[in-house]
Amino acid sequence: MDLHSMLTFALAFLVFAASPGPDNVTIMARTLSHGPASGLAYGLGTVTGILIYLTLAFFGLSVLAQDMGWLMELLRYGGAVYLIWMGVRLWMAKPVLPQMVPMERRGSLFPVYLTGFALNLGNPKMPLFYLALLPNFVPASFNVSALIDIIGIILAVETAVIGGHIFLSERARRVLKTPRSVALINRTTGGFLGAAGLAILASGRGN
């Protein structure tokens, strides 16, 4: 890829990655409620899904991924239900100040990672995104060198986007000084998580 194509693709992907949606809302909600490590775990899950779809696109299998409807539906609905469950738990949680939560009570990060991975991999728009975008920015001979360039761009953009969301959420988290403020943020983030899960379920019915 030449420099112009790389910069144009980076800008297009930045708009795609930074646009409001369930992933970015969940990264911020997990950071606010459980700390930056939890937000990062979810973000890494989404990036893993993105890279898998990119690899499928590279080998010309994006259309095949779209045909695996039952698997995509299972991943999307499973992730959506888990988001709703996390939202309900947060809404009902006791208002414990962040600095008072012991590390052993913050839960495993692996299920959080898997949720981000499943929701991203179950997103039917991802293969369409790559099928529409890649032909406009990569050479006709889409070789391994071009794939490496695109992976580097995606990782750089996602690092900036996810890092920015985590940074802003952690700054907000540090001002939580009273149980009342924690309860408010728990219910706010819980509501966002539940709404994100419901939105995913609703969009699935419309397809």
TrEMBL record:
Transmembrane segments annotated in the record for this chain: 41-62, 74-92, 146-168, 188-204
Membrane topology classification: Multi-pass membrane protein
Protein localization: Cell membrane
Keyword terms: Cell membrane, Membrane, Transmembrane, Transmembrane helix
Highest taxon of the lineage: Bacteria
Species the sequence originates in: Agrobacterium vitis (Rhizobium vitis)
Tagged with keyword Transmembrane helix: yes
Protein name as it appears in the record: LysE family translocator
One GO term describing the cellular component: plasma membrane
PANTHER family: ARGININE EXPORTER PROTEIN ARGO, ARGININE EXPORTER PROTEIN ARGO-RELATED
InterPro entries named in the record: LeuE-type
